[in-house]
Amino acid sequence: MGGGDGGGGGGGGGGGVVKDVGSKAELDEALHGAAPVLVHFWASWCEASKQMDQVFAHLATDFPRALFLRVEAEEQPEISEAYAVAAVPYFVFLKDGKSVDKLEGANPSILANKVAKVAGSTSLVESASPASLGIAAGPTVLEAVKDMVKENNSSKNENANSDQSGLTTRLWQLVNSHPVFLFMKGSPEQPRCGFSRQVVEILKDEGVEFGSFDILTDNEVREGMKKFSNWPTFPQLFCKGELLGGGDIAVAMHESGELKDVFRNHGVPINSKETKVAESAKDVSETSIPEKGGGISDSMGLNVELASRLRTLVNSSPVIVFMKGRPEEPKCGFSHKVIEILQQEKVAYESFDILSDEEVRQGLKIFSNWSSYPQLYIGGELIGGSDIMMEMQKSGELKKILAEKGIVPKVTLEDRLKNLVTSSPVMLFMKGTPDAPRCGFSSKVVNALQDEGISFGSFDILTNEEIRQGLKTYSNWPTYPQLYYKGELIGGCDIVLELQNSGELKSTLSESILQKEQKAGQQSEWKGRRSDVRQTLHQLCSGFGP
Q1: pLDDT the model gives residue 359
Q2: What percent of the chain has pLDDT over 90?
Q3: How far, in Å, CA of 22 to CA of 5, rounded?
Q4: Which residues pair with 321 in a beta bridge?
Q5: Residue 84: CB partners within 8 Å, gap ≥ 6?
Q6: What is residue 40's three-state secondary structure?
Q7: Given this model, what pLDDT does residue 127 score?
Q8: 13-17, 260-264, 299-303 — which is least confidently predicted?
Q9: N or C: which terminal CB in the chain sees fewer CB atoms within 10 Å?
Q10: Residue 200's Cα: distance from chain center in Å?
Q11: Beta-carbon neighbour count of residue 257 at 10 Å?
């Protein structure tokens, strides 16, 4: 990685090195200088960040008069929030202390082009392609980027020249490469989702050796496996080339003892529990046991009390996010993104501000085997951070997991009202029911509709105060009854009776939307009358309750 101590504020550039920024004050000081400033927001867990950091370091060598800075996004939330960083890698380009450009994602050629625009010749305005990067960048970065492009092109050519049977062969070889094989997110040492971590723990508990493949590193394998196994999600567990299932199935088979039977029936070697217990006892005997009060948990190395507290926290709500800040005021772009996704999915959730409790902040990293924040848990299981959530939302996997866990989107009052007013082509909100109206106005509207032979649905607003009050705001109509046609408010009792007397009620409640639009010009006088009636009703009803 291209870190260093060079650069800093002042008129000169970075001298060909990348400097790590330790605080917002340090960044602000650097922006006071005359040199262009280029900032790379990165994360240690992100492979794309590491790759782009190499390119960034090469660019620093080729543009020594510019100041190249690096910010660890999650460790510097104040800076990340100031530049609206929601994903990494992320680059910001500044001149005279002002942001002039930005780049999100891993694209070496675009990065080189943007750097050249800010730090090199101002005459370069055309987009740099991999073949023309020599114009935008110096020899060092050109060589590095050419290598990356060569690798990418090589991969693409291989993909283009290999047909579907080639991929199928590769997948078959993978699933049969070990007696037990797991397709997962991340690695057994560092799972990238709670379900993958859970299956890894199960396999370790079963005492079987297994191979694994990180599907996050190869999209071709990831998408291909969904068709190969006819299983749309990950992890996927195979035994002797046969699919056993995903996380939930692995858990159920493990708990019932069926998984052990499958392994034995297929001749998979299993380490006996006696051996594991003996090894565990040996480990404990060789380890200095803390005195009373230490309470170290054998499984995680956490204080027993803290481990219990964390377990309670992650299970305190069906959906809980451990974040920096609060949902109303996130303290980092990643936390803000997770909250945004949960709101888009209309999920009810709880949150915990890890900045308010250092013990929880550090302990949860060990408990979850996940080194960064935010962390999302569903049903007590770790799902992952912002990058995993963005990916899962995009693929539809997040919605599926929520449904599998029985977590349904919360329905807002506006959603309920919208569903109600469109639940029937003609819908009447009234006091009482058509068979037993509870007020004279409702009774008159029911009679008018029945006299015209109009079928309609109804809702008794006396049975639900929330609907009763909410619909007044939704429709901007303060009294009942209220009559709707295809979700559009027609009006109250007086308007319905006026339409009936003029012979327009049946046609108004049966014509199509297109016909209504075509008649819009002809109905301007009627709309004016209806508006006058509304105003009069508002005035008459202002002194009376609904």
Answers
A1: 93
A2: 35
A3: 11
A4: 351, 376
A5: 333
A6: strand
A7: 38
A8: 299-303
A9: C
A10: 24
A11: 9
Helix ranges (DSSP H) in 502-523: 505-508, 513-518
Most confident of 303-307, 424-428, 536-540: 424-428
Find out whether 29 and 22 touch, Cβ atoms under 8 Å. Answer: no
Q: Tell me how far apart the alpha carbons of residues 235 and 243 are, in angstroms, rounded to a whole number.
A: 11
What integer is the mean pLDDT of 30-58?
Answer: 87
Closest CA to 247 of 308, 196, 192, 288: 196
Residue with tokens 């799972």: 191
Hey, is 191 helix, strand or coil?
A: strand
Is residue 164 over pLDDT 60? yes
Which stretches within 412-523 are classed as H helix? 413-421, 440-451, 465-475, 493-501, 505-508, 513-518
The owner of tokens 């997770």 is 338
Cα 374 from Cα 364, distance rounded (Å)? 11
Instruction: Count Cβ atoms within 10 A of the Cβ of residue 28 and give its class: 0-12 exposed, 13-18 middle, 19 or more buried.
Output: middle
Q: CB within 8 A of 451, min separation 6: which ones?
A: 500
Chain centre distance of CA 507: 47
Whole-structure pTM value = 0.43
Q: Tokens 């899962």 map to which residue?
A: 392
Contact (CB, 8 A) for 88 and 46: yes
Query: Mind giving me the DSSP string for 77-91?
Result: HHHHHHTT--SSSEE
Q: 3-class SS at 161?
A: helix
Q: What string of DSSP letters covers 344-375?
A: HTT---EEEEGGG-HHHHHHHHHHHT--SS-E
Judged by phi (left if over 0) then psi (alpha if -120 to 50, else beta), residue 348 lies in beta
Tell me, rounded to whole angstroms, the distance of Cα 387 from its chain centroid.
7
Q: Could you report the per-residue pLDDT of 400-435, keeping only the tens digit for each? A: 888 888 887 766 788 889 989 999 999 999 999 999
Joined tokens for residue 475: 């429709």
The residue among 58, 49, 78 whose CA lies nearest residue 17 is 58
Written as six digits, the tokens of 332 are 């980092």
Q: In the chain, what is the straight-line distance between the N-terminal and C-terminal CA atoms, in Å? A: 70
Position 285, amino acid? S
